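Weekly structure sync, notes
Attendees: PL (lead), two postdocs, one rotation student
Agenda item 3: pending single-chain targets
PL asked that the sequence for the first pending target be pasted directly into the notes so everyone works from the same version. It is reproduced below exactly as submitted, 317 residues in total.
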Amino acid sequence: MADTTPTAPAGLLRPLGFGELFDRAVTLYIRNFTPFSLIVLVVMLPYALAQYSMQARSLAQLGTMLGRPGAKPVDPLSGYGSLGDAAFAILLVLTLLVVLPFVFGAVAMGVARLYRGEAVDLRSCYGRALRHVGRMFGLMGMNVLIFLGIYFGIALSTFLLVAITVGVGQLGTAGLVAGIVVDVVAGIAAMGLLIVVILSMGFSILAVVIEERRVFDAIGEGFSRVFSRGEFGRALLFALAWAAISLVSAGTVYAFMFLALYLHQPWIVTVENVVVTTVSYAFSTVLLAVYYYDVRIRREGLDLETQLESLASTAPA
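Predicted structure, written out during the meeting:
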């Protein structure tokens, strides 16, 4: 009997150039736009609906503060500034931050299925992402601690550098200028480091969802794959491009927020937020998953093909 096991389409499991990474991601996302978007909409739509009433009041409040003609006065104690609304807003954001890694894992699992020659299936993708809930929560907690540790380490180093610059500046203008240059370069390097750290954390989520690794093993693999001599420079360039996509989507959201303020139509923000967030988050996750597989293909070669084959036997029924 013929072997009916799905296999990766020809050309997928090969190293990609930097430009090819984006071309591959765009191609996979456009060809599978509906299932990838549905994976994100499952979470983003309820979140947007819960946020709608708060946006209506906050836009009205902001319109009054900015003196928009025709804006109705809003009682500050009953608007967005009330403690109840503030607490609800914080709860919404925290809930979204907890849920998003599972959405991230589900989209990435969709890419894994495409690499295996299968269709992107919402149930199977979420089934795999939710399989190790305990590990995912443990990973989130560890990633937060690691990020805060690195962040405060950078903040302390920045404070010391500024203090040294002020001290050296007492010796003359040349010392002050040299100190400022060092501070600027160090600041840029610190931002680059943080972006690559976030990229490594994304890799660690994929290591749990796709490779089914344990928390500390996943974190170790995430950092070792990115912070390697042959990959760090490429990872930095990719992380900067990846962050730029997020900045563009955030800028679009704020642009429509001001349009909604001008027209006094908060539903514009809600609809636009759902559309932009769904498209940008789904695509950025597809892009990261493509880069994740590219790094693994370069490091692991045929071992990756074996791991992809195992996805079929462990997929939920």
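Discussion points:
- Residues 1-6, 71-81 have pLDDT under 50 and may be disordered.
- DSSP finds ten helices and no strands in the chain.
Action: rotation student to compare against the earlier draft before next sync.
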